[in-house]
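Notes, Module 5: Reading structure tokens.

Key idea: the token line is not a picture. It is a compressed description, and you learn to read it the same way you learned to read a sequence, by spotting repeated patterns. We will look at two proteins. The first is printed below with its tokens.
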Amino acid sequence: MVKVTNKWLLLLSVATISCTPMDDALAGIFGRHMRDSRSFDPYENTIDPPENTVPFASGNMTPGVGQLNTGQPEMGIMAPPFGPMDLPADGSSPLGIVNPVAPDSASLIRGEVMFDRMCAVCHGAEGIGSQASIIEKYPLLVAYNLSGTRVAGFSDGYIYGILRVGRGLMPSYGHQVSHFDRWHIVNYIRSLQRKAGNFPVEGG
């Protein structure tokens, strides 16, 4: 064992106490020290992000159907911001947004996957809320009949908007379902409506 003498304790105490005076002395010579470092307020002296970086603001937005987000997406692809109060009462498209995704087989396959994953638990596999599995446990939570005539009268943009921002008992899925996946779900819902013998409003 090392015997700690009064001499070492005194030296340790002086060294500890002298940190601040020593730091201040160096600050006097060099003009600054770590305790007085330059800092920036939020949004002060901002700089552009490096090329090909993915900004946080882009979220789950991608530059196109089936493409990965490798940089800032083109402006105009993403529908403008809106909230539940911006959804028209007549079921028309909020802010005039139009479905950019063709209802081809690839879209319908992806739409079915996402519908089964995110929607079927409340709306049923065929889009009939009364046949949903959640009804067995919560019989009062009968969701909209998505394959019925009422929803068939809604525009594509309105159904997209409901998915994105929610309304009434329908929560927002904008943070869980990506932009193009919402449109794939819209296309799949249209296929359910046709299967049920209803003729949906196309586009818009």
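Here is the second protein, with the sequence above and the tokens below, as before.
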Amino acid sequence: MYRHVPNQLTLLRLVLAGVFFLVLNQYRYPGDVIADRWLFTAGVVFVLAAITDLLDGYLARKWSAESTFGRIMDPFCDKVLVLGAYIYLSGPRFAVESAVGQSGVVTMVSGVYTWMVALMLARELLVTAVRSEVESQGEAFGANWFGKVKMALQSVGVPVILGIVWLDPRADGYGWLAVVRDTLVYGTVVATLLSGLPYVIHSARSLRRVPNG
């Protein structure tokens, strides 16, 4: 009976991701009291979803309940939750028009821009493609610790960014939050890109050992 719990937690994470998107969709910067409540609630939902990720992996190992379903759906749910969050953070709900003299130019109070999300998506698509090709040749190609560090940074980054937006880095006396935000965001992007290199190198070596035809 317990062997199904990790899979149920994985599906719960997908449901929580949907709830997170619906809640965050109610927010628009600069928020009023009600909008700030939506933002806070979104942060709580995201943290709960992230906790299910830790739990399902732990329980699957503890009960030796790893399954093909979990191996496919666990990373899928992770990507939906995390990448979906960064897509929202780079969207119009967090956009702020720049100062006078720069009409039409916007900055992101979240610190997340669309080019950053594009790089994150490109990394995930590349790793998925090379993993599929290598495993089609009969070689295991599971996640390594680089990927886990990347996932941890991305997951921690979302609620922290939401918290910084809630406090408002543009408010008087809170400008230092923008430095914290930008350091975290750019660090996450760099870590995401660097985490893809070991996969590419490993796949290149693996595919060289496979004879053509």
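Summary for the second protein:
- DSSP finds six helices and two strands in the chain.
- Residues 29 and 110 are 10 Å apart (CA to CA).
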